[in-house]
C-alpha cells in the first residue's frame, strides 16, 4: 500500500497529511501559515524519510501563486510524484454536487462534503468549516451536496469591524462568554461575531432538517462551546479536525491505489 500526501491550502493556512488507503491510514500531519510556507519542505522531509509519496492529492483555494509554490516544493521533496489538483466536479466518491455550475464550488467545500458523507453515510448533514471564511453546507441522506452559505470567518468578521470603524479595537479570539449581552467593547464584539457564526450554523441545521452537524476549521474551537449550548444541536454536534483532509482521504479510500 503506497502513501499519499494530501494537501488542503486554505486562505490562511496550508494543511497536509500523509496517509495510505486503509481506513485508519493516517500516518502524519502538519500545517503552516502562508507566510511560513517554506517550513513545509522541512516538515515533509521529516515525515517522508527515505520514502517520499508517489501520489499527491491537493485542494487549493488560495490561488495560482500558492499552487505554483507548492508545485515547486513538491518537485523538490517528492520528485516524480503524480500530483492531482482536486477540483469540484458533478460527482466524486459517491457524492453528487448540486451546484448549478459544479466547477464553481470551492474544491475545499466539495472535499469537506465528501468527508462529511463518509463520516455520516445515509444521514442529512450540515458541515460548517470555520476558516478564513465560514462555509455551511448541506448534504442530504441520499448523498447530494444540496448547497450552502459563505460568510466571513470569525477572524474576518472581527477584523472588519476594527478596520472600518473609528472606535472598535482588534480583538483576539476568546472563550465563550457567560452572557451574550456584554458590558464592554471587546466582549460585545466577541459576543456578536460568535453569535453570528453559531446562529448561521443553527439556522442551516434547522432549515436542512439535519441530524448531524460537523464542525471543523481553525476557528471551530471558539464556536463549538456556543453550539454545544444550543438545544437544537443536542447530540448532533461533532467537532472534526480538518474535514477537508478527511474528505480527500475518503476519496483515496474510495478510489484505491492505481496499479
Ligand atoms: N494559530 C492560528 N493561526 C491562524 N489562524 C488561526 C490560528 N488559530 C485559530 N485560527 C483561526 O482559524 C482561521 C483559519 O483556519 P483554517 O481552517 O486554517 O482556515 P483556511 O482553511 O481558510 O486556511 C483563522 O481565520 C482564525 O480565525
Ligand atoms: C469560500 C472559500 C473562500 C472558503 O475558503 P477558506 O475559508 O477555506 O480559505 C472557498 O471555498 C472558495 O473560494 N470558494 C469558491 C466559491 C464557492 O464555493 O462558491
Ligand atoms: K472555510
From TrEMBL:
ATP-binding found in the keyword field: yes
Reactions it catalyzes: (R)-pantothenate + ATP = (R)-4'-phosphopantothenate + ADP + H(+)
Protein origin, superkingdom: Bacteria
Cofactor binding, note field: A monovalent cation. Ammonium or potassium.
Any GO molecular function: pantothenate kinase activity
Main location: cytoplasm
Chain residues that bind ATP: 8-15, 132
Needed co-factor(s): K(+); NH4(+)
Keywords on record: ATP-binding, Coenzyme A biosynthesis, Cytoplasm, Kinase, Nucleotide-binding, Potassium, Transferase
Record InterPro entries: ATPase_NBD (IPR043129), Type_III_PanK (IPR004619)
Pathway: Cofactor biosynthesis; coenzyme A biosynthesis; CoA from (R)-pantothenate: step 1/5
Active site: 108 (proton acceptor)
Family named by the database record: Belongs to the type III pantothenate kinase family.
Protein's name according to its UniProt entry: Type III pantothenate kinase
Taxon lineage: Bacteria, Pseudomonadati, Pseudomonadota, Betaproteobacteria, Burkholderiales
Gene designation per UniProt: coaX
Amino acid at each position: 500500500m503506497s502513501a499519499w500526501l494530501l494537501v488542503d491550502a486554505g486562505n490562511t493556512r496550508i494543511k497536509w497529511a500523509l496517509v495510505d488507503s486503509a481506513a485508519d491510514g493516517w500516518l502524519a500531519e502538519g500545517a503552516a501559515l502562508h507566510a511560513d510556507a517554506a517550513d513545509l519542505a522541512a516538515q515533509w522531509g521529516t515525515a517522508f524519510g527515505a520514502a517520499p509519496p508517489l501520489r499527491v492529492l491537493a485542494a487549493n483555494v488560495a490561488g495560482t501563486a500558492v499552487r505554483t509554490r507548492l508545485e515547486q516544493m513538491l518537485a523538490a521533496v517528492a520528485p516524480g510524484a503524480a500530483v492531482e489538483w482536486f477540483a469540484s466536479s458533478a460527482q466524486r466518491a459517491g457524492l453528487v454536487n448540486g451546484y448549478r455550475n459544479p466547477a464553481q464550488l470551492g474544491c475545499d467545500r466539495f472535499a469537506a462534503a465528501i468527508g462529511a458523507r463518509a463520516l455520516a453515510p445515509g444521514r442529512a448533514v450540515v458541515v460548517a468549516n470555520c476558516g478564513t471564511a465560514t462555509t455551511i453546507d448541506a448534504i442530504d441522506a441520499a448523498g447530494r451536496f444540496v448547497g450552502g452559505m459563505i460568510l466571513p470567518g470569525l477572524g474576518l468578521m472581527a477584523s472588519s469591524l476594527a478596520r472600518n470603524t473609528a472606535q472598535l479595537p482588534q480583538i483576539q479570539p476568546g472563550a465563550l462568554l457567560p452572557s451574550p449581552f456584554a458590558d464592554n467593547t471587546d466582549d460585545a464584539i466577541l459576543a456578536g461575531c460568535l453569535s453570528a457564526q453559531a446562529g448561521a450554523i443553527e439556522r442551516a441545521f434547522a432549515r436542512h432538517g439535519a441530524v448531524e452537524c460537523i464542525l471543523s476549521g481553525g476557528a471551530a474551537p471558539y464556536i463549538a462551546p456556543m453550539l454545544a449550548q444550543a438545544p437544537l444541536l443536542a447530540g448532533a454536534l461533532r467537532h472534526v479536525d480538518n474535514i477537508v483532509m478527511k474528505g480527500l482521504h475518503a476519496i483515496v479510500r474510495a478510489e484505491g491505489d492505481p496499479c
